[in-house]
Amino acid sequence: MRITLTTWSLEQTSPSDLRPSPAPEGDDITIARAAVPSPEYSRFLYTAVGGDIRWNDRLPLTYKEWEEIVEKPGAEIWVAYDRGTPAGYVELDPQPDGVVEIVYFGLIPAFRGRRIGGHLLSFGTARAWDLAERWPDREATRRVWLHTCSLDGPHAMANYERRGFRLFDTKVEEVEESETPGPWPGAHA
């Protein structure tokens, strides 16, 4: 079956574009960088967050391909924890000319709707802007961008816009509908 998929690309072109969201009150939310490159942990986060919203583009990747992603100089994964349990993550992909893509961002389903997403996106976007401070061979960030699509959660676009991201491109295409893979093969929410 074919479906219509709309993909929106958004950007910030200055650190002053970021409109941060505070940490949710009353929750013990911490955010830490996954500083040891781990294909297993990266794949866990990817499937745990995206399993119910059809994130499946990385599922066929080999271990070596996952390793190349997490070991790329300047690539970073920042993880939100609720009392020690992973709640969601932001993955930063450094690109040429001072560009950083927020290539993946989201929350594990059990943690959605608790105001963690705005705080995590704010934190991750700030880390995209100061990426060169942690990677001395990298030039200063001049642009942070991301994309979202009509398959993502219903609050994704509004969260990006509230954080100061501006739309710069929209693409509409007909695609084959894929199964919701769940957090591991054969599991469905």
From TrEMBL:
It holds the Pfam family Acetyltransf_1. The keyword Transferase applies. Keywords: Transferase. Residues 29-182 form the N-acetyltransferase domain. One of its GO terms (molecular function) is acyltransferase activity, transferring groups other than amino-acyl groups. The keyword Transferase applies. This is Acetyltransferase. The gene is ORF Y.
